[in-house]
Every structure is written in C-alpha cells, then in structure tokens.
Design a protein that fits this description.
439 residues, mainly beta, Pectate Lyase C-like, 14-stranded parallel beta sheet, elongated
Length: 439
Amino acid sequence: MNLKVTWLIVVLCLALSLSASAANVSVNCTNPQAGTFPSITAALNSLDPAGPNVITVQGTCKENVFIFYYQRLTIQAAPGQTAVIENAANPAGIVLQAFGCRGLVLVNLVIQGGSVGLLVNQASEAVIQNLVAKNNPGDGIVAQIDSTLGVESSKSINNGGVGFTVASKANATLSTVPGETITVSGNGGIGVVVDTGYLQVNFGALHVDHNAGAAVFVAQGELLMFGGNGAGPGNVFQNNGEGVDLFDTSSARFFGGNLIQNNGEVGLQVVGGSSVEFFGFTEPDGTVAETVIQGHSGPGVNIVRSSAATFNGPNVIRHNGSASDSLRSGIRIEHSNVTLDGTTVAGNTGPGIVARESSTVNILDKAVIRNNSEDGLRLMFQSNGGFFQPLQIAGNGGPSVSCDASSLAFGDFTGIKNVNCNVQAEVDRVATTSRVVLH
C-alpha cells in the first residue's frame, strides 16, 4: 500500500477515535425526559473517562457524585439556569468529589447539604465558575493532596464548618473579573484555611465576612494577596471571630488595597516563626492602594514568637484597642521584629506600638505614629527601636518613645519630642549613649 495512503488511514482512525470519545449529554433530575439522564452519576457512567465530555444539568439532583479519574469533563447548568446537587446520603456524605481528575470544570452549580460540599482531591485539577457551596453541615469547599483549584465568581456560605480549605500541598487561585467577588460568609468555623498549602488571590476578588472563626487561618502555608488598586477596598476581611492568623512558619504578602476590620480582638496575628509583608502604593493619579487594619478591641496587629512583619508604603493601622483589653495597641510585638516603611499607626487606644521581650522595631521613610491614647512607641524587656528620618511621632497621649531600663532607642531623633529612653545617637560619627528626656 502507498505510504501516504497508510498514514492517511492512521490519521483518520485517530480522528474518529477522538471524536467517538467526546460526548455532550443532558441530565434532568427534576423531570427526566427521553434523551436525558435522571442523574449526574448515570450520565458519568455512560461516558468515556478520557473525554472531552460535557454534562448539562437541569433541576435538583439528590445524589452524591464521585468523579473518579475523569479527564476534560465539564459539568454545567443549562444556559440561564442554576442546577442544584443536594446530599442524598444518611448520614450526610460528600456531595461532589473529584478524585485524580484533570481538566474538570464546574459551572453554575449549587452544592448543598453534605458533610463536605465540594472536595477536590488526590492531585485533581479543577476550575469552578459561579458555584455556590451552601448549607453543608460540614465544610463548604476543600482542595487537598496536591490538587489545583481555580475559583471564579463563587461563594461558600452558611456552612457548618470551614468555608474554604486548601490543605496537604494543594494550591488554589481565586480570581475574577472587576466588579465580581468570591464570597466566604456566614460559616460556623473559620472562613478560609490554608494548611500546608498555597493560596493566591488576584484583583481584590475575595470577601470574607461574618464567619464564627478567623477570617483566614494559615499553618505552614503560603498566602499571596493581590488587592485593589485604590478604586475600592480590594480584598475584605470583616466581622469575623478573628482577622488573619499566620501560624507555624507561614508566610504572606499583601499588595495594594486590602481591608481588615472589626474582627473581634485581633486584626492580624503572626505567630511561631511566621512572616508577613504589606506593599501599599500610590497610583500616578494620586489614588492610594493601602491595607487598612482597624476596629479591633485588642491589638490591631499581634506579632509574637520569633515572627516578623514589614509594612511598606502607605498602609494604615488605626482605631484598634479598647480600655478593657490588657493587650490594647496598634501593634504588639513580642520576641519578634517589625519594620514600618511609610506606614501610619494612628488613633489607637493604648500605645501605637508596644515591643516586649527582646523585640526590634525599625521606623523609617515617612512612617507616622500619632494620636494614640498612650505612648507612641513603648520598648520593654530588652527591646530596641531604630529611627531613620524622615518620620513623624507626635500627638500621642504618652511619650513619643518610652523605654524601660533594659531597652534602647537609636538613630535620628530630629523633630521627635518627649523621648524617655536610653538613646544611642550618632553625632559627628561618634556614638554616645545616655538616658535622656526630650521635650
């Protein structure tokens, strides 16, 4: 046979094989009709797992769906509709689980009533669009065990457990078009958990509010938050049991506009060798994109146990603390270090910043500490503070800077009045140390 003809037959056979494996099927759980399947599970069983396949769903499907090693599969509601998948197991089970899947896309679905709403498991790769996980007695959405999850314009609301979890070396990216949000709200546990995983949020898309636990809890994980550009608040974490918690050598970076407010006692905690960086900036038109931490009854920011925080640019920590809270302050530091580079700490009840137990504070480049009800900066128990002009410390209820006998302040104190510290200052390149009170 002619070689060209042989190759043509092979190509045609491959094309026919690929075409035969692709299918578009319909499911109508509420009113099954000829040509439709009565359940998503029945539709799955009719398909070649290699795909590509599309399942279009109408109505409310009362079933627990297990998608095992399917590739290139889309499950979507009919155009203009929302399809519901509701737990049918007793006791409640996982409503929809993807196990070892690739190219799974879930569109316009409501998942409810299960021990877990959606579980993306065992190195699966999935994207959810306009999906709502709600009213599950357990967790809403979980990605775990090396899985990858993309989230667009979706919600995890009113679940009994955690709203959204990324665990066991999974990674998730939350991203949507301007004007749309991803909402984690009203859950009985923590809003978002990152446990030995990676979470990235793009374009200020995430709103986490009214969860009983912390807005975000990270343990041995990594968090990357790209907030708003100043036109709006960007990512919002408000009215939760706590704010953002970083524990056990976690790391986080926040860019642009983010709002952390009214989350019980603490807005941000960085604990156990963890670190966080904030990057605020000013747009060419003068619009400021900043992280604001405000409205907490204790410290706005709590940095403890060998941890670190750096605030770069025009970020604001304000209106935190209450008279009845012994930890009241804008920023509280213990066995840790903090750098303020252009950030403002203002209007807090208690000290603007209190550093204890061998902590270090560096204040530089237009940083502002003002109008706090007690000291601007209080250094205690072998702590030290560095001051690098230009900066402003003024209008506080106590000294601008105060130290106990074991602590030290150093640097350039030009324009800073009411300093009560052991001060080390450079004068003509000769270091001098003395106990001074500057008024």
